[in-house]
Structures are given as structure tokens and as C-alpha cells.
Amino acid sequence: MIYSVMLLMSFLFTPAPKSDVPKTIYEFKVEDLSGGKIDFAQFKGKKILIVNTASKCGYTPQYEGLEKLSKKYKGKLVIVGFPANNFGSQEPGTNGEIEQFCLKNYGVSFPMAAKISVKGDDTHDIYLWLTKKIYNGVMDSEVKWNFQKYLLDEKGHLVEMYPSSVKPDDAKLIAAIEKK
């Protein structure tokens, strides 16, 4: 009886999906660090690695590995960084400051989106799509820290989520990128 009531309560209080969240990754257009646009439709036919980033995090040196990955798999993989200040206020800078930091310290040449929120009440729609099965059709996940990674295949389908501890040169990630 208690289980039935709990099940009914969870059904009644589960929020309905937002109707304005795009159905595919290719429908997203996001602002970049310099005020331009990143149109995900231009990435059709390539794998996409989406990473939430921060400039003052223990994982920040992963920028170097991400840049190497971006260059090694150019034409096959696109990395898109999403600066976020959700964890320990480790991304306090403005978009301009973040852009300068990434360029000066790591030579980042892959697309970097404008700073967003990746969790909480103000979660950006692209992260709702990445973290909710009702949108991505594959899995639910939670962004637990900076430099968590989401890999999508050449058709825009979510393949896997990798926690922050998985470095850009990790064998599991490389194998997934190289998989046909």
C-alpha cells in the first residue's frame, strides 16, 4: 500500500518535460564567448564532446588534453566547452576573461560557449537535454563537477557520460571516439 501511494505521488509530482527544449542536439544554437553563435547543426557527421569547464579547478589542466584531442581528431570530433560557475565558484570570470584565460594558458582553439549554468533551477536547455532521458532518449545523469564529459555520435545521439576524473587521453574515451 505504501509503495502504491509513493509510486502515485512520484507520478503526480514528476514535472512534465519542457516543450521548448530542442528534440535533437542539432537544433541547439548557443552563444559563444565572444558573442557569436555556435550552431550544432554544423557538426552533423562528427562526434561531439561537450565539457563543462572552469578556470580555477583542479581539473583545469584538462584544457591541454582537450586541445590535443581536438587537434588529433580534427574533422572527426568537435569539442565544445561550456564554462560554468556551479561548483565552488571556480569559474568567476566574465566571458572575455574566460576566453583570454583559455587562449593564453592552454591555446584553446575548439569552440567555447558563453558561461552557463549546468545544474539547478537555471540549468541551460542544452544541459537539460544532456542530463534527462526524456530529452536525449538514452540516460539520466547529473553533472557532479567541472570537466564532466558527454560524448555524442556522428548522428547526434548521446553515447556516454564520463566523469571529471576521466582525462581526455583516457583509453575508454579514445576508444569511443575511434569507434566506427
Describe this structure in words.
The chain is of the alpha+beta class. The strands form two sheets. It has a four-stranded mixed sheet with strand order 4-3-5-6, with helices on one face. Strands 1-2 form a two-stranded antiparallel sheet. It has a single domain (24-178), classed as 3-Layer(aba) Sandwich (Glutaredoxin), CATH 3.40.30. Helix content is 29%, strand content 16%. It has six helices and six strands. A hairpin with a 5-residue loop joins β1 (29-31) and β2.
Question: In a nutshell, what does this entry contain?
Answer:
The chain has helices at residues 2-12, 62-72, 95-106, 125-131, 133-136, 171-178, and strands at 29-31, 37-39, 47-53, 77-83, 149-152, 158-162. The chain has 180 residues and is α+β, with helices and mostly antiparallel strands. The protein starts with a helix and ends with a helix.
Helix content: 25-40%
Q: Distance between the terminal alpha carbons, to the nearest Å? A: 49 Å
User: How big a fraction of the residues is strand?
Assistant: 15-25%
CATH class term: Alpha Beta
SSE ordering:
HEEEHEHHHEEH
Q: How many domains, in number, for the residues?
A: 1
Mean pLDDT: 92
Structural class: alpha+beta
CATH topology: Glutaredoxin
Q: So, the CATH homologous superfamily?
A: Glutaredoxin
As residue ranges, the low-confidence spans are: none
> Based on the structure, what is the oligomeric state of the protein chains?
single chain
Number of strands: 6
Radius of gyration: 17 Å
Helix segment count?
A: 6
